[in-house]
Amino acid sequence: MKILAIGGTGFIGPSTVAQLQQAGHSVTVFHRGKAKTPLDANDLIGDRRQLDQHRATFAREKFDVIVDFILSSERQARQLMDTFRGIAGRVVALSSMDVYRAWGVFYGLEPGGLEPMPIDENAALRTQRQTYPTEVLKKLQQLLPWVDDEYDKVPVERAILGDNELPGAVVRLPMVYGPGDFLHRLHPFLKPMDDRRPHILFANDVAAMRTPRGYVENVAAGIALVAMSPQAEGRIFNVGEPETFSELEWARKIAKITRWAGEFIVLPHDKAPPHLHWPGNTAQHLVVSTERIRTELGYVEPVAADEAMRRTIAWERANPPESPATQSNYEAEDAALAKLNAPV
After folding, report:
1. Structural domains in the chain?
2. Alpha-carbon span 304 to 312, nearest angstrom
3. Could you tell me which residue, 2 or 139, shows the higher pLDDT?
């Protein structure tokens, strides 16, 4: 098949392109020319915001599948469908698990009680158009230039799946980690381990918090599988690890690989330093089922969990963040621990 990857030069794109090429497909990457095309794939230079201006070129190429990595808003999704309707076979859109109502509850933007777990593809979606608190969205835009002020994957999905002429499929992504992770998701755990801290502290609600994750090559394998599977038309698939671990369980997995010999200490929420608190509603866990893609398409992770962790740790150590999203505050942690252990 001939496959066009829109914005496939970032974190997840190169792994997806590689797996599509290894499966024997011809891949072209549409990008702005500011990054190297993955694995010497064909490229088309252009701006995602002027996608419709390249319709004649796309029509000549006759792509079987379009994979859009950087859809942000309903406006962009409609432009995508208008551009490729009648000249491409089908579309695969990358979405996010932030479409689920549970994410809105976590961020305090969704009315009502907690959402039941686990979350599958039929779970309730957000009813509020605001996906994240303003300060969270601004930070996201600093890291991902393609995220616009209208960011909302819920109407994106409706536009992709609601077209009567151009079939679409949606892949909902978890928190993705691995080499190239611009959020450096392992750094807050790895740094104190590498600094040989004797203790790593958690607030009790954060220690128990469960969130969905996926290693970059494994997530890319799910995207590639949906792109290669005609039976995925009209379907939505969660992609991520089969088990949703707590923050403490996740930290223990890192400690096992690094052979960190320290102790994890879980403090009552009101005894933990403020920098160890999470701003969201930690009573709302985010446990997600990925059974559908495994059952319907036969998805299996190509990289084992321990190997994924080893590769990510090696990359994190070689590429520490210049400005960590989470700053360590060892002094505050030592003070909290000393106060907890002080005789009454």
Report:
1. 2-180+213-242+289-321 (3.40.50.720)
2. 12
3. 2
